[in-house]
Amino acid sequence: MRTNKLALALFIFIGLTIAGGIDAQSSTLGDITVVITNLRNTDGEILISLYDKAEGFPKDRDAIIRAAAVPPEASGQVTTVFKGLPHGDYAIAVLHDEDNSRGMTFGRFHLPKEGYCFSNNVKVRFKPPKFKKTKFTLDSDNVTQTLRIRY
Does a structural domain hold residue 85? Predict the structure, then answer.
């Protein structure tokens, strides 16, 4: 008899979860806090792009799932939070858009003139890093990525 009650309770719980009676997703959402450091000035904006897959990272603007444009602070640091994201893998690309062109400005020999960084503080060698190197996992209420702008 006890086995039947346990099976019935399990059946009701699964049925409610599937039907939406119990919020099955609430425990799988979290926030990503992004802290950007080492800003050399307060010109322009800090453009922060969040991606959830390798396709399009980091160049395709259509692949961005969330974005923020934050004015630089005199402290040389900015913070923003992307709220209510499903648990999973993400990558971040950041540009200190000093001239407000909404894109990277290049100088001689096609070298960047503006600051940039990627999640996990991955170093760039001649071309943007792959999603695989920059990805991190959101698997709790909040994950923080502290990133250092490189010039």
Answer: yes
Distance (Å, whole) CA 51 – CA 36: 17
CATH code at 73? 2.60.40.10
Q: Is 143 inside a domain boundary?
A: yes
| Cis peptide preceding 58, ω within 30 of 0 | yes
- Give yes or no for a contact between 72 and 78, defined as CB atoms under 8 angstroms apart: yes
Residues 26 and 58: beta-carbon distance below 8 Å: no
Q: What is the pLDDT of residues 138-149, one digit of tens each?
A: 999 999 999 999
- The stretches of the chain forming alpha helices (DSSP H) are 2-19, 131-134
In a domain, 113, yes or no: yes
Q: Total structural domains in the chain? A: 1
